Amino acid sequence: MTLKPLEIYKLLPKKNCKECGDPTCLTFAMKLSGGKAKPEACPYLDENAKTILGASTRPPVRKIRIGVGERAITIGEELVQFRHEKSFFHEPGIFIAVNDTMTAEAIQERVIFVRDGILTRVGTDLRLSGIGIRSLAGSPEPFARAVGAVESVADLPEVLMAGDPAVMEAGLFVCGNYRPLIHAASPSQYREMCRLAKKYGCPLALKADTLDSLAELSGHCTAEGVENLVLDLSSPSLHAMLNASTAVRQHAISRTTPALGYPVCIDTSRGGHADASLITGVTKFGSVLVCDDLPEASRKAVLVLRQNIYTDPQKPIQITPGLYRVGTPGRDAPVLLTVNFSLTFFTLQGYLEASRVPCFMLIVDTEGLSVLTAVASGKLHEALVRDAIAKYGLAGEVSHRTLIIPGYAAPLSGRIEEAIGWKVLVGPRDAADIAEFLEKEWKT
Ligand code: SF4
């Protein structure tokens, strides 16, 4: 159950000793309630308070790690039902499946596609997460060979997908030390799968027909000593899948059913709507998404969608303020002022690169606000521009004294001109018009 600040406060020692780093116990209680402090920071909690606060402040969706090394992923640890309430924290892993009836070459080709594919957007490299390996042949040797083919070319997180514990063990024998997700335990064989999860130290996915039986199964697995669980909610019906994933998140966040407080896995190959399942999984609480295939256009779309859903809505993505070069600008190159909101920066940069006019971009710190918002809120002002010109040594970089400001900053043009002593040109409002603007207006 989630406790309110005053309920937490009643459990604290009320010494106001500041040893937790907060000025009062009440401030500490408020931070605990918001997930911004840990109970261990107070050295005076009694055992009863430790137990209650530990359960109350633990993330309602368990944190799980899949894989090892640089490409390992963390899932779970989510705190809210809706993204606008706070933020979603750990983006879902998107896994491309191979199977043990494919040739080693075909498997390796698909693995290399996942290993090397990068989409760079707003300064971030977006990648697929790993490989799902399906047992279709139904026997240990082909499965072990398929796992070996994957391992021979990549060190990626894996989901081993076999319902027969003997087949699963053959795959784990090849890659068990790399912490793959074991997929999946069912009510009929969970003891064997739990044994494998404990032996190889791997997380374990669970499958059952209803949420009630899934909760029961998770209880059985934790009783067997396996706590790193993932709930498989794959379904041939998109509607059923959406209902189930929403219900699981509600049960987890409200802490009414701790047995459902685990990340969710969706195999998008179930049913005839793989793309729709994938999109639904990204937006509605999936943490492990397995796809049979992902054409290039779908790959890009889903990576961008995932990036958007898993950025903090309360924190605009920012880039570091400074003087940036587009091409190799000379001393007569234009200088364009803009803000440090990433989307603004990268959009303008893209159009400037396309214009083939080498230039400087002077980026000022508006705390990630767009030009229009920064002007309206007073975050973009003449002193900021004057200080940035001095700080980044712009006068030494160019021989002219002309600054191009964004169209939406036009109301500030006079004040900026007066503060910096340079000529100010008001550029277009839309970055798409910058090439035409430079061609017509830029004269040193
Ligand atoms: S350390 Fe504990 S007792 Fe001291 S102020 Fe913090 S919460 Fe209160």
Description:
Strand 4 and strand 5 (124-126) form a beta hairpin. The chain contains 17 helices and 17 strands. An 8-stranded parallel beta barrel has the order 3-6-7-8-9-10-11-12, surrounded by 7 helices. A 3-stranded mixed β-sheet has the order 13-15-14, sandwiched between helices. The protein has a two-stranded antiparallel ribbon with strand order 1-2. Helix content is 40%, strand content 17%. Bound molecules: iron/sulfur cluster (SF4). Iron/sulfur cluster is lined by residues 12-13, 15-20, 22, 25, 28, 42, 44.
In a few lines, what is going on in this structure?
This protein has about 450 residues and is an alpha/beta fold. The protein contains 17 helices and 17 strands. About 40% of the residues lie in helices and about 15% in strands.
Summarize the main sheet: 8 strands, parallel, barrel
Strand arrangement within the widest β-sheet reads: 3-6-7-8-9-10-11-12
Second rung of CATH, namely the architecture of the largest domain: Alpha-Beta Barrel
Instruction: Give the CATH superfamily of the largest domain.
Output: Dihydropteroate synthase-like
Instruction: Tell me, briefly, the overall form.
Output: globular
**Measured distance between first and last alpha carbons:** 66 Å
Beta-strand percentage range: 15-25%
Rounded mean pLDDT is 93
Number of domains: 3
Query: In the CATH scheme, what's the topology name of the largest domain?
Result: TIM Barrel
- Strand segment count: 17
Helical proportion? 40-55%
CATH class of the largest domain: Alpha Beta
Count of alpha/pi helices: 17
> Spans with pLDDT under 50 lasting ≥5 residues?
none
Q: What would you call the structural class?
A: alpha/beta
